[in-house]
Amino acid sequence: MAHPTTADKIGMYVGGGLLLLGVFGIGLLEMLFGATHPVSSDGQIQHDALISVELRSTVMIAGVVILGLVALYKVAVGPPRR
Amino acid sequence: MSTRLDADLLGQHVSYDVSGTWLAYWLVVMRVIGGWWMLHAGLDKIWAWPFDAGWFVGGRAAGTTLGPVVTLFDSGVLLDFVNVAIPLGQTAIGLGLIVGALTRTAAFFGSFLLLFFFIINGETGAWSHGVVTVELLGIAVYGIIASTGAGRILGIDAYLAETDFVQSHPRLQYLVG
Question: Which domain holds residue A59?
Answer without folding.
Answer: 18-23+43-77
